[in-house]
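(Structure overview)
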Amino acid sequence: SVILQDDTRLKARVIGRDAKTDLAVLKVNSKKKLSFVKFGNSDKSRVGDWVVAIGNPFGLGGTVTAGIISARARNIKMGPYDDFIQSDASINKGNSGGPMFNTAGEVIGINTAIYSPSGGSVGIGFAIPSNLAEPIIAQLKKFGRARRGWLGVRIQTVTSELAESLGLEKARGALVADVTKGGPAEISKIKIGDVILKFDGKPITEMRSLPRFVAESTVGKRVKIEVWRKGRSVNLYARLGEFPESQPLRRTRIDEKQKNEETSVNVLGLSLAAINDELRNRFKLNKGTKGIIITDVKINSPASEKGITPGSIIRSIGVAQKRVSSPGGVRVLVESARKAKRKSLLFLIERGGSSRFVALRLSK
């Protein structure tokens, strides 16, 4: 049930909820006409603008507090689509779900979380922007669930070292670390090692922007995607799917024979060996796992600084993402990069079924 300010109790039911954004839609049945408020454009809000928050802190219904917008686009690691408005208006337990108004009387946010060492307000509260909430609410009303666009890639941040290894003039975009088998990205020829620079005309200035842009897109929409590949810009087109609840990630493979067949080497602070039964047992690898495994990492080496640990597997190397078949093949590629006077070399490292790109310094 829902209780109005005049203590009227109305029946309500949930018609849809979305855990990823912590939003739900209730349908309220009433014989009398109810007043309502309108959403505003949260993208027009600026840091320093005055806002008013309304809620029921500690059960005190209809409490109004005021403050300013302290920051926008905050990522507080609550989920993959974090883009919160931060405010210093007093928000406490019970404010969640309440509106945040601008001075025009428009709802530009939905109060959802606070930072607090005590559990009470310390002037750091967060609201879901109206421009993020509105399309989700519309989908919950229509479908009873959120229907998000899906590209089918796993991405990581492009650091300055990775940018140098990939030939980018500066760190930007989202680096594709994995491609889902049969997903829209694979069908559109997006490859591991590509850096997505633009999605549907929107520049990807930082990695975390891409999941939100994709999720906000219409399922089935054909979008233009600009990627950085082997030192040049490439335009591709993908038709977005619908984000699945659970989707196993699998990797594409690039095979290349290596002439150097050394069975173990030490390079860049890494001790490398071809995977055999003994190593599978030692590092508890799945049966049938093949490739080059890291058996040891030298302390204070470039590899240890990047968090690489024994038991990790090298899947591919370099901008072209060459797949190596022997430890000696790794040495060949490292020496070749040094001769070309490269500062670092790109590695695709797998650990526990999860892959990530790492740029290792080549200084001896």
